[in-house]
Design brief:
- This protein is mainly alpha-helical.
- The protein has two domains: 2-86, DNA polymerase, domain 1; 113-286, hpI Integrase, Chain A, CATH 1.10.443.
- Helices cover 58% and strands 4% of the residues.
- It has helices at residues 2-14, 20-39, 50-62, 67-86, 113-120, 128-143, 147-151, 181-199, 218-231, 240-253, 258-265, 270-273, 275-291; strands at residues 158-159, 164-168, 174-178.
- Strands 1-2-3 form a three-stranded antiparallel β-sheet, with no helix packed on it.
- Helix 2 (20-39) packs across helix 4, helix 6 packs across helix 10 (240-253) and helix 10 packs across helix 13 (275-291).
- The radius of gyration is 21 Å and the shape is globular.
- The N and C termini lie far apart (60 Å).
Length: 296
């Protein structure tokens, strides 16, 4: 059980970009959950049923935890099981029918357009790895991909003539997302010069490769983002997911409708996409205060 939980925590760092404090909270809550299971002689996460989850929630209440704290614990465990199902770990989700009290909305961190430009300009595109890194960041921001989707892109998934990328998201759902000219040029340069140089005599079906034609990993791309964030002098804690958040927010700020953004992000439920409208409302409020004549 500990190994599966650690895989989930690694996923939260790399894919979701959780802060150190949030990660400590998740780790602590999940450790308490595992202790409860072991005390009840349950030694595998696949053996947990909904009734066990409810009993655990009752035990948290008896131990004096507030509704908000119980909700936080439940969010951690629900996320764990969602991840395990997504990664085909042979478990069913016993938490999906357990309601979580609303405890407020955490807004994702984003970069300004100027900060995005600084980040995307950071790689040395005369170097093969720099070409690859530039193309990966351009595609991630240009199409709003998840890092897991980015590293799984195959050669056949990119169409540089029509300027779109085919993505297989959660549940292997396929979607087609347009890409802009900068992403198109960066990928073209990588495919023409950088990729053949790095492949040497090897072969690979993946668009983005590491040494000896091996596919990129989440951890590798996370390190790439950190490297260029430092080079671009970006202060905030940057993760690969920040590019996806920025993609969605910048589209909405530019006037895109919510349904279109939902489709491009691959969200099955529009309520997931609606979190970005809160950010855009803040942006619009600032613009109104700055430029409307009756605000002076």
């Amino acid at each position: 059980m500990d190994e599966l939980v650690q895989q989930y925590l690694d996923y939260l760092i790399i894919e979701k970009g959780l802060s150190e404090n949030s990660l400590e909270s998740y780790s602590s809550d999940l450790a308490q959950f595992l202790s409860f299971l072991e005390a009840n002689k349950i030694h595998h996460l696949k053996d947990v049923e909904t009734v066990i989850i409810l009993a655990w929630m009752v035990s948290l209440s008896k131990n004096g935890l507030s509704a908000k704290s119980r909700a936080r614990h439940l969010v951690a465990v629900r996320g764990l099981y969602k991840f395990l199902v997504q990664e085909n770990k042979g478990v069913k989700n016993p938490v999906k029918d357990v309601e979580i009290p609303k405890t407020g909305l955490a807004l994702p961190k984003i970069l300004s357009i100027k900060e995005i430009e600084s980040l995307l300009d950071a790689p040395d595109i005369q170097d093969p790895r720099g070409m690859r890194n530039a193309a990966m960041m351009e595609i991630m921001y240009g199409a709003g991909l998840r890092v897991s989707e980015l590293i799984k892109l195959q050669m056949q998934d990119i169409n540089l003539e029509a300027n779109f990328v085919r993505v297989f998201g959660k549940g292997s759902k396929e979607r087609i997302v347009p890409i802009g000219s900068p992403a198109q040029r960066a990928v073209q340069a990588w495919m023409k010069s950088g990729r053949p140089f790095m492949l040497k005599k090897a072969s690979s079906k993946f668009l983005f490769i590491a040494r000896a034609g091996k596919p990129m990993t989440r951890q590798s791309f996370w390190k790439i983002i950190k490297k260029y964030a430092l080079a671009a002098n970006l202060k905030q804690n940057l993760t690969p997911h920040t590019l996806r958040h920025s993609f969605a927010t910048h589209l909405l700020e530019g006037g895109a409708d919510l349904r279109s953004v939902q489709t491009m992000l691959g969200h099955s439920d529009i309520s997931t996409t609606q979190i970005y409208t809160h950010i855009s409302k803040d942006y619009l409020r600032k613009m109104h205060q700055q430029f409307h004549p009756r605000n002076n």
